[in-house]
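Sample 1 of the test manifest.
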Amino acid sequence: MTQPEHKIRQLRDFLDDCNYKYYVLARPDVSDYEYDMKMRELQDLEAQYPEYDDPDSPSHRVGSDVNQEFQQVEHRYPMLSLANTYSEGELRDFDARIRKLLPEGEEFQYSCELKFDGTSISLTYHDGRLVRALTRGDGQKGDDVTQNVRTIKSIPLRLNGSGYPDDFEIRGEILMPHDSFQRLNAERLEIGEQPLANCRNAAAGALKTQNSAAVAKRGLDCYLYYLLMDTLPTDSHTDNLALAKSWGFKVSDNTKLARNIDEVWDFINYWDNEREKLPYDIDGIVLKVDSMTQRDRLGFTAKTPRWAIAYKFKAEEAAAKLLSIDYQVGRTGIVTPVANLTPVHLAGTIVKRATLNNADFIQNLGLHTGDTVYIEKGGEIIPKITRVDETLREPGATPIKYIDKCPVCGATLVRNDGEAGYYCPNYENCPPQIMGKVIHFVTRKAMDINCGEATIEQLYNAHLVNDIADLYSLKASDIEPLERQGRKSAENLVQSIEKSKQVPFDRVLYALGIRYVGEGAARVLARKFRDIDALASASTDALAATNEIGETIAATVFEWMHNEVNIRLIQRLKEAGLQFVLDVADDDAPKSDRLAGKNIIVTGSFATPQRRAELEKMVEDNDGKLQSGVNAKTTFVVAGAKPGASKVQKAEKLGIKIITEEEFLAMMEKE
Ligand code: IVH
């Protein structure tokens, strides 16, 4: 083995071990700094010696930006679901049935486990390497989400030691822990999108994202609970999972072997109380007969095993009376109705408010004034109203009529086709929108101006700041006379505003608060167009031809850039001296625009896997847009050996050119 290869292997082993300790054992033993340094060293060596590339390298866990399509693949063992119940009586019936089906008097044990509330996954390992990850799908066939799953760091790509079987499947649940969920929703709110309802939807949605680099950022986790192979290592499910744990899988410790149903019931009661303290959602417990021999004897019904059942917790629910509805107006003008309720205890807190989402939600509930409603708290941050008790409706109650005017500025609300939410279109003068935009503008990830919400409100009320550009004409002497301000704080603020003039263009673009333009989108747009004038004069097609930028963002950016008010705003910000040009020589920016406006597909296999990545990079370097599927907008398809059959067929049907690698290279030279 050459020296660089040896070093590369050593670094990979080291980083795999760090990931294992951090994500599986939750016991990190190196600092973030050391980890980052070793990762950088590995990336540098891998770039220098591409011949030692390995798809399992920890450096690849960041995913890829190239959109993918999911192939449907047959499950080797069907992926069944579980019978479930909410009642103790039915649970005891289940136990009685098992005792009847097993030989009289035979002892057995239940493995009691948490029922993780995420999305199920089946992983296949060959020779200690992860080769495939499938979703449940219809139970017979699932979606191949291997690329996405490879970015989840608690899932081992290579197993520990050498005691694992050559070929097996292991199943479990992919979930989004509460902290990842809260971060995701905060990001969504920041770009003017509705928050996701719960951790389960968020996990399932993330897993089906086409872009694996986006999945890598979602902070997903995975617990494994079911080993499958023709001959299992031991007859005990619990022992098999303990082995799986020693190979590197994350297996929960919150389990118990119960000798009878009363012990199971204790476990259920314990977790019904304690589940609030877990960092992720569970929606019940699962009990499974532990012995494989006994499982074989019990067998399956058409849909579910006879040897297991899920006991589901009732979501905690409380009744409250509707007092009134507040309509909140966000930075992008979106209106969110919130119910004010009589205070009630729910899952350890006192609840006084619940979200009503949007006008459709209120209508579907059939909500009337003074109604008694039921509220539930799951993994959601804000409790939600699940139903109305119509029997308690008061005489004379009237259906809730959604507002048609902005509650703050009085403008007539509008609703875009296909959207559930109403907007206040008075972007320029509606106070919460103005203040919301300034609040977003000053945040750390945007202009990083040291100014709290209360100060922004003061500045607005004193007519000093009516839009973000006004910040740049503030003088310390304007601020100083305001309540709770003084010489020092006024000077600090002015200084901090001054300093923000150095913030790079991509962050300025993000700070403008254009709907859907989060940090990522702002970065790619800034890198592609390089200055605000080029961006402002780009057509929607040119915008949409940018990697990662879809049609919605393209249309929104185009509209924003052509709005009179925004044009004037940009002019004033330019005069104030903000950065509207990308000044760093940015490696990721396209180096030529030879393929600008062209939508290109690279499919099939080439001489080496790296070759395909090189071709894709060539497309990006020349400003082309890589597509994952053929459509009417595809310019041409570069096909290697064994190209995707559906892509070729569709291209032929649409009369789209299919060219070879050589033809593509010749074309690049000519252009
Ligand atoms: S065992 C043949 N164990 O709940 C049954 N499932 O409602 C194999 N789930 O499809 C499943 N935690 O997605 C099992 N500890 C656990 C579980 C669990 C969550 C999910 C899983 C399953 C669904 C059934």
